[in-house]
Design brief:
Layout lengths: L1 H26 L11 E7 L7 H16 L3 E7 L7 H10 L4 E4 L1 H12 L6 E4 L13 E6 L1 H15 L4 E6 L4 H17 L4 E6 L6 H13 L4 E5 L5 H8 L5 E6 L2 H4 L4 H4 L2 E7 L1 H14 L7 E4 L6 E3 L3 H5 L3 H16 L13 H10 L1
Parallel strand pairs: 1-2, 1-3, 3-4, 4-5, 5-11, 6-7, 6-8, 8-9, 9-10
Antiparallel strand pairs: 10-12
């Protein structure tokens, strides 16, 4: 009898240990057991801290936590700038048991998509796709933005605010995606002032603020009094050049850079407005669709000004430095996009329009 009781006691203890082990596993981030209702989400970016594109994308995780609270577990994974490690980072994320993995962008979407093929049960959100065909996987939902319309909006503001009739645009890398922004900028500026002169140049990357400053100073020497930086972190050089030249305005990109540059007030004061690419809101909407089971996997969506995916930073500083007449003019021109009266050129759809418009605004 004692032997039987001893065996029963051992069995009870063993079952208790198994139960404890399962409970421990579920709270450590797995998707099994008691935490099966918690959706694990990872965002993979090269880095954050650029005060522009990557930072506004990272903000998408905060929006998810605000909406879903403890129902989601979110994590940023910084992959680094070495492309050789990007696929490895994606494979590690897939093996870590995430339900939804977010990444994208022309530079590193290929690494995400290569891994997505091998993990069909994981749902992927490409927050800013480049290659539509490559993103047509049954577990990938991809979005992109009307950056041509974003460019048009900033071009309108620049031309309205310019006193010299000369404005500039400093791009990061000379890519069709960046030309898409700037071609729209040309069109918006010319809509306001057919005789506008627009100077356009490229840094060569998205991080060299010193090179962007040098380019901007050269533009200012040629009469430019409003310059748009379409260059990620390198765009801080545009602000630095404007800060050294009173009367010159800068325009930010991707996020409200007047807000993100609050720690550098001398640069912040130069930023009239920013052309906003709302990647954070797109991440919230995309993940919501995935969680609700309505995401159209295998397809790509093009998000526009009308969708609220792009727009201008119309903060108090912008309003304080624009006259009522100027604000009314901005509204007049930009409303034409909403009504469909204006169709903005798109370098990605019609390659070559950047060069065509550049020739017109360079005369």
């Amino acid at each position: 009898m004692k032997k039987v009781l001893s065996l029963l006691l051992v069995l009870v203890l063993a079952l208790s240990l198994v139960a404890c082990d399962n409970k421990s596993g579920s709270t450590s981030g797995t998707t099994d057991g008691g935490d099966s209702d918690v959706t694990k989400i990872a965002l993979l970016l090269p880095y954050i801290g650029d005060q522009s594109y990557f930072d506004v994308t990272y903000q998408g995780l905060s929006l998810l936590k605000e909406k879903y609270g403890d129902a989601v577990e979110v994590k940023l994974i910084e992959m680094g700038t070495d492309a050789a490690g990007w696929e490895t980072a994606n494979r590690q994320a897939a093996e870590a048991g995430y339900d939804i993995i977010i990444s994208g962008n022309f530079e590193y979407e290929a690494a995400m998509l290569a891994v997505a093929k091998d993990y069909p049960d994981i749902k992927y959100l490409n927050f800013d796709y480049s290659d539509a065909e490559a993103n047509s996987l049954p577990n990938v939902y991809a979005v992109s933005y009307a950056c041509n319309e974003l460019g048009y909006l900033t071009g309108v503001v620049a031309a309205i605010k310019s006193k010299s009739g000369v404005i500039g645009a400093v791009g990061g890398m000379d890519l069709n995606g960046i030309r898409q922004f700037i071609a729209g900028y040309f069109q918006g500026a010319m809509a306001v002032n057919p005789d506008i002169k627009v100077l356009s140049s490229f840094v060569g990357d998205f991080s060299d603020a010193n090179k962007a400053k040098e380019i901007s100073l050269n533009m200012i020497a040629q009469g430019a009094d409003v310059i748009w930086g379409v260059a990620g972190g390198a765009g801080n050089g545009v602000f630095a050049a404007a800060a050294e030249n009173p009367g010159v305005w800068a325009i930010g990109v991707d996020t409200d850079q007047y807000v993100t540059m609050a720690g550098q007030p001398e640069l912040q004061a130069t930023i009239l407005t920013s052309g906003m690419k709302n990647c954070d809101k797109a991440i919230l909407a995309g993940v919501t669709a995935i969680m609700e089971g309505t995401a159209p996997y295998g397809t790509q969506e093009f998000l526009t000004y009308k969708d609220g995916a792009v727009g201008l930073a119309e903060n108090d500083y912008y309003k304080a430095n624009m006259t009522e007449e100027e604000l009314a003019l901005v509204e007049e021109y930009t409303s034409k996009i909403l009504t469909g009266e204006v169709s903005v050129v798109d370098e990605l759809v019609t390659p070559g329009v950047y060069e065509e418009l550049l020739a017109e605004v360079s005369d």
